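Supplementary Data S3. Sequence and structure tokens for construct A.
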Amino acid sequence: MNRPARSQSSSSPLDRVRVVLSHTSHPGNIGAAARAMKTMGLSRLLLVNPKHFPDDQALARAAGAESLLVTAEVCTSVDAALADCVFACAISARQRNLGPPPLPARLAAAEILARADEGEVALLFGNETAGLSNAEVQRCQRTVFIPANPEYTSLNLAAAVQLLCYELRLAAFDGHPPVLSKTVPFASPPASHQDVQRFFEHLERVMVSSGFLDPRRPRRLLPKLRRLFGRAELECDEINILRGLLDAVERQVAGKRRMASGCDSK
């Protein structure tokens, strides 16, 4: 078994969760599992007697998570893969007479992370065809199942890894994982009180000059507009757009008045 030295004092409990794939038959599933792990912030991948590894199909299916394959630890037995763990969960859809009590994935996630505060923990996944043997399950403290359609519980190995890692990520961040977006922020800072007031003064001036508002009979038009824009919680960019629009209207109104006065003088 090749086992690179790792820190036992990681700040994140996710770093102390190892994903163990036992006797994986298709190398593509190893790569896809690595990809599923990386998207959820897990990095500890251990392989028990994989049929083909390393393999180009594993690299192809990893799709950017090749680093997990490079550091993956290949073990000769489940006992070796679970060495130094304080807690292990067997991921299995089958109900067994012998073995640890079963828990649905979401409930299990909280317990797994709590135990990760004490040391290394493991998620043990079986072969694609046969799953985990009874002997493998009995080496764990819990059986974890994904509450799938009871009429069809079969899941691809990488899909099962993805679901368990997702539940762990949700639990680790109390249901609110950080989201990083590379897109340019659409919002701008909120407009200040004085900017909003200048906008309303500008709006009133344009409404009067355009003939839309009769200042002698304003009725409830301005209060209604204030309520409308108040609900919008205007931002700086939005104020600038609106005032630019009002400037354009003012220029149009002024131009028409100049044309009208020129015609009258003739």
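Construct B, processed identically:
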Amino acid sequence: MHFHDQFEDRIQAATLLAERLGHYRGRNPLVLAIPRGAVPMGKVVADALDGELDVVLVHKFGAPYDPEFALGAVDETGWTYITPDAQRYGANSRYVAEEKQRQLEVLKKRRAQYTPCRPPIDPKGRIVIVVDDGIATGATMIAALHATRAREPAELVCAVPVAALDSLEYVKPLADKVVCLLPLTLMGSVGRYYRNFRQVEDEDVIDVLTQAGAGRRNDLA
């Protein structure tokens, strides 16, 4: 499969990523997708590698006047990453504190919604591949890698179809390996590198995780 500067959709991008990660097949990797967009992608990668799928819950917070522009992110424990230039965009310490509380509430609700009947799958001692649909500022991926590293995986891999080169530099020290199909000097929004970048809804996430959970139970039976 080939692409130029655009992927057809998340599924095609995930299929290409899985090809690049093929050497992890048969080693029971745990694929952690960042909701919501990356969850269908995580399923493609986990299925291709005979691995398990779960979510890593982190939430970005945006600039005061542009919620889509990530200035930081928080994980479920409350650990927060702030981008180096956050203050320049109006994110003072009070704004950050308020956003952190707001996003922690969102994460609590998501955990209850997404995996109501089971705890998160434990990454300890395993190969863990954290997947997202792209890295713009890097805030979300940095929080996701930090949250996962704290739980002591044997190997931590960051895998994305597209990323800004300068953000990849921030991400690299946090992972043992970074796989990116399309590293770019100038990036803009992640969505412009996909012909179809439809919104992934909570219901889609729940469907994918329920299917993955059912498959896992059958394997264990």
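The chain has a mean pLDDT of 90. The two ends are 36 Å apart (CA to CA).
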